[in-house]
Amino acid sequence: MKKITAFFISFILFTGVLSSQVLKSSGVQSTLWTGFGAPYDSVKNDNRSKFRFYGLIETLQARIDIGKFTVEGMLNWGALTEWDGKSFAHFTFANTRQNPFWYTNHNNQGGWWTNGEIDGYYVNFLFHPFEGFDVGMGTRLEWKIGPAPSSLGNLWEPYAHIIQGGLKDAEPGQADVAGYSYYANTYSGWYNGNTKASLGLRYRLDDFMEIGITIPSGVTTSSPVFNAAFMIHPFDIFTASIAYEGILQGSGNFYTSLSLFLSNITLDAYLAINKIGGQKNDSRIGTGAAVTWDIPKISMVIRPEVGLTFWENDNYTPAIYFGGRLDYTLSNKFVLGAWTSFAWGAKNKKWENDWVGGFVFDIRPDFTFVLNKNHSISAFFDYQNRTRYDRVVCDTWALGFYWTYK
What we know:
single chain; 19 strands; 4% helix
């Protein structure tokens, strides 16, 4: 039981002191998903089926370590169903950006980061010339230096959940429920430039310190830009992190965090200021905190969290979300988990009374059965209620199953 409890805790404690890449060590991991439900677009269009089988999605991850080199990558491939109105039409076999969250959380508005999509694939190459030093280049390095509102796993994994309560990255009125705030603790991308690919250098001294710089894709000599980050863990109970995306650009993203480790409790607090120095009324501030409580006597881990988004444009009201994750290990074979969240979106004070900021409620219980050291099976049920800024109510749900091999 201790081993499986530690397995789930490792995904919940996102302190980012020593972030990993696709996998923590050499090997291959396969996650096969299938599911059905009432997708997001069915509640917006009465001509579409309210109930659909979604097909199959296979996510393959691989990592190879040879000497001082690491090659790693991910491929997301689907046998997806297509529906003609209320009838099944055909299967589409293709590399895809879709994942289980795409069906209940996707719409064509709200920003490229938060629509329930993932990269259809990515590949990273790392060179380790000496201990603690990495040279990396890739389409998604995912170099992290501190906590932020947790996504609790990748979107193709059974214990994932919607980020920041399902708020969308957009101004009020440009998305159903606006108010998402980006946190630049993943310092290897360039949010304002819509890219996650980069070339970078970092040095990590055990778990005491990390310092890194990256150059994101698309940089030119006429428009230079780089990102920098620093993390220090001077004492067992304390970690501090800071990062900045867009150095040398007119508009950048700032991030900082503090973590305290007190026996079986971890306290995280974080702050982001986005698009500093950009156009007037374009920037926003995101701040939040989380508590991770490990209760070893009953093999339970609880993580409540809260976040706020404030806008430079004083016509926009703040957005807020509350969320929480629970994992309870029943035995060395069975784990019960659940995520739930509430979120209220920002609104424009100039709106008439018939428009609101929007509201999201999401609940996602899950169950994992560990067959052996290589195989596990998970099931989840996800229900989401969204009241859009125009007061249109969208209820969606999904039931899905995962088979994970590693």
